[in-house]
Amino acid sequence: MTVQLSTLLAQSGNRKDDRTGAISVPIYQTASFGHPALGQSTGFDYSRTSNPTRLALEETLAAADGGVKGFAFASGLAAIDAVLHLFRSGDRIIVTEDPYGGTVRLFEKVFRPLGIDAIYVDTSELKAVEEALKYPGVKGIFVETPTNPLLKIADIRGISALAKPRNILTIVDNTFLTPVFQKPLVLGADIAVYSATKYLSGHNDVVAGAVVVGTTELAERIGFYQNAIGAILGPQDSWLVIRGLKTLPLRLHKQQENAQRIASWLSTHPRVRLVRYPGLAQHPGRDILTRENIGFGSMISFEVDAASRVAKILSGVKVFLFAESLGGVESLITYPAVQTHTDLDPIVRNRLGINDRLLRLSVGIEDVNDLISDLEAVL
């Protein structure tokens, strides 16, 4: 029987303990597993390789994204690190030019010295991606969509169509929209990656990452690196992510509803110069999301009219929390230029639009009128 995604997620981890009938998957807090006899195994030997709690999460992740196999890691960056181990010295990867700062740090400070070069382009422009494919040695395209924090939208289907005939891997960071609003593998991508710290877990109480792949060949390779490097997610944290997945659709729809209201309100405020939110009619790339029947998410970035206002806004909010991260039930406000994107060269930051007037909102599930009143007071 095929069930809808909300049903799949609500029952994630269920029916995993036939002996006791436990509704919630048990936390198998063990490093090792006993063998019935020489040459026999229960299917579990050592928790770095596999653990029943983590496996329950990984099976749910794969099913949610329509993938062959899912993998849970200790963080989103650990997940990306495992994927980048698919490449070799001399390879080039086309990368979204305005991704999360930690992603840039990984490419520039870890993998470029190993001989894997990133070519940064505006992946919201399909023509720019096509031009970059002319570089010799391109073996992958790493797309973040919507981007963090500028919320640019990439045409995953179009990029994948360019990559596949050239045997180039398409990797999509789907952290902002999750499988509820966007399924990269269904749109043609080969790999989806997540910071599961964010929406997938949804309660700001766990750090985790995830990879979902579309082929058995990729599953074998990522599985090898997960086991060989060992940056796996522990059983307790796996259980927390499973718990978060159960309410993911409910949370995302409420957060999106709140974000739409807030973005529309900000667009009319005299002290706000620019609002970036995919749900606004004027947002570039909104047509792609609409065409693919993809949700808009709940991330907003906006520019105030003067950088001198920023400090008072950050110290004055009472409902929003001034903190890094995103995707939890609590609404957060962040200053990307000095927090999430400090690893970007200042000249590049300003060229992209990550300037000293830009603030980013992660909209939660609170009463939207409280959130708007909070912003109104500080603006």
Could you describe the 3D structure shown?
Strand 2 (92-96), helix 4 and strand 3 (117-121) form a beta-alpha-beta unit. It is built from 14 helices and 12 strands. Strands 1-7-6-5-4-2-3 form a 7-stranded mixed beta sheet, sandwiched between helices. It has a 5-stranded mixed beta sheet with strand order 8-9-12-11-10, with helices on one face. It is globular and about 75 Å long. Helix 2 packs parallel to helix 9 (235-245) and helix 3 packs across helix 4. It is an alpha/beta fold and 379 residues long. It has 2 domains: 5-245, 3-Layer(aba) Sandwich (Aspartate Aminotransferase, domain 2); 248-378, Aspartate Aminotransferase, domain 1, CATH 3.90.1150. The longest helix is centred in the C-terminal third of the chain and has 19 residues, at 248-266. The model has no long low-confidence stretch (mean pLDDT 95).
**Which percent range fits the helix content?**
25-40%
Secondary-structure element order, as H and E?
HHEHEHEHEHEHEEHHHEHEHEEHEH
Radius of gyration: 21 Å
Mean pLDDT metric:
95
How many E strands? 12
Overall body shape: globular
What's the CATH class of the largest domain, please? Alpha Beta
User: Main β-sheet: number of strands, strand sense, barrel status?
Assistant: 7 strands, mixed
CATH architecture type of the largest domain: 3-Layer(aba) Sandwich
* Number of domains as seen in the coordinates: 2
Strand content: 15-25%
- The helix-and-strand class reads alpha/beta
Number of helical regions: 14
Q: Unreliable stretches, pLDDT < 50, 5 or more residues?
A: none
- Write down the CATH topology of the largest domain: Aspartate Aminotransferase, domain 2
CATH H level of the largest domain: which superfamily?
A: Type I PLP-dependent aspartate aminotransferase-like (Major domain)
Q: Order of strands side by side in the largest beta sheet?
A: 1-7-6-5-4-2-3
The termini sit apart by: 52 Å
